[in-house]
Design goal:
Peptide Deformylase; globular; binds zinc ion
């Protein structure tokens, strides 16, 4: 089911989300939340990832769109109880947007490379390293789970040009 994406004024986006008990990951509640998150994300025009609090569920989970990967990797990516276990000292200043902050972009410092551990949708723990866009996504989404929006840490926020960019 496509759910409403909450905007930045909403309280749930500013609160720390709760861990999901690992024993409940295979249960119907978590599985239907995962489906809703993918449906909601894929219903957006440009979204690359979505965190559960963005649809009003204050739990530690985010999903990444399969559309950001090449044809050889189309797996649905689900991250439950993710933790940033390593981040490079090297960082980049990136122009970032958010489905919960309509019409804006902002410059944010992000580590160039990160390592994340999480549980997948079967309840298996895994770790994944990332650089580039995926590293940026991991940091942005874990921010959501900690009640942080990129506009809280951006050095500059600007309006999106009204003309289509792509
Ligand atoms: Zn966001």
């Amino acid at each position: 089911m496509v759910r409403e994406i909450l905007q930045k004024e909403h309280k749930v986006l500013h609160e720390k989300a709760k861990e999901i008990p690992v024993s409940s990951i295979r249960g119907d509640d978590v599985q239907s939340l995962i489906s809703d998150m993918f449906e909601t994300l894929l219903d957006t025009e440009k979204g690359v990832a979505l965190a559960a609090p963005q649809i009003g569920e204050p739990v530690r989970m985010f999903v990444v769109s399969p559309n950001i990967f090449g044809e050889d990797e189309k797996a649905d990516l689900v991250f439950i109880n993710p933790e940033l276990v390593n981040a490079s000292k090297e960082s980049e200043l990136i122009d970032e947007g958010c489905l919960s902050v309509n019409g804006k972009y902002g410059l944010v410092h992000r580590a160039s490379k990160v390592m994340v551990t999480a549980y997948d949708k079967e309840g298996n723990k895994f770790s994944r390293g990332a650089s580039g866009l995926l590293a940026q996504i991991f940091q942005h989404e874990i921010g959501h789970l900690n009640g942080e929006l990129y506009v809280d840490i951006a050095t500059e926020v600007h309006d999106v040009p009204t003309q289509k960019e792509e």
